[in-house]
Amino acid sequence: xQKSLFSTLAFFVIAGIGAAIAAPLxxxxxxxxxxxxxxxxxxxxxxxxxxxxxxxxWERAVVLRLGRFRALKGPGLxxxxxxxxxxxxxxxxxxxxxxxxxxxxxxRDTVPVDVDAVLFWKVVDPERAALAVADFTSAINWxxxxxxxxxxxxxxxxxxLEGRDKISADLQRIIDARTEPWGVNVISVEVRDVxxxxxxxxxxxxxxxxxxxxxxxxxxxxSERQVAEKFGEAAxxxxxxxxxxxxxAMNMLYEGLKHNSTIVLVPSSALETMxxxxxxxxxxxxxxxxxxxxxxxxxxxxxxPH
Length: 306
What we know:
Layout: H1 2-27, H2 31-51, E1 52-55, E2 59-65, E3 68-73, E4 76-79, E5 85-92, E6 96-106, E7 112-123, H3 126-131, H4 136-153, H5 157-162, H6 164-179, E8 184-195, H7 198-239, H8 242-259, E9 265-266, H9 268-274, H10 277-289, E10 299-300, E11 304-305
Helix pairs in contact: 1-2, 4-6, 8-10
């Protein structure tokens, strides 16, 4: 748009100058001379308009002279020789993003996946980009897609899902090697998404759930082992300290009667081992003082109340 506006402005300026020169000739009685001047002015204006070009800051013009490469022009104002010079390509040297994907591509372990990725690239040599390949934009997209398919075919599904950074780095290296002869530099490649079949997603979800359950059972078993070890240590302490065992038994009876129930079954052997006969009588009196009713019973041994 900028080129056409500037060329149009040049055309009208030159044509206006020609008209200003032709007007006095026409009024002085030389209409033929005035017409000739107008024709010449219009021709010069048309040539000047076609010769003047303006390139934006991010553009480079590839100029061919009689079919041969002449030069790169831009940015800014420049001129060409009409008819002799042509501009077949205007190359954008900014960073360009291109999305590409691989659909239903088999991984190394024969799992079909859909992978979406984004390519960031820029033209560093406009001459090679214009002359070495017919359509460098389309060629870059095809090179990126084929490289992605090659990477997927050599990668396990687990590595593809977990190692996106490595996949992106490998893609960048491969695509850059393919596009370097075209004057294109690959800045980076980003893998956006990896889609797997729905049935496989369900199976992986079940596998993950089973793994979590297994870990929970392992943790529970380890906890039970630690508890058993602590009980073993406590048993050793009680074995060498009967007083401590007696106090522990009395405390367990007291807590059980106070919080849970009014009937406690205690083996008769425990009475002899822990000497609980006198202790139970004292415990019953203590509970009565704390508000336990008379209907509360303490069943010992085979069920005879004491």
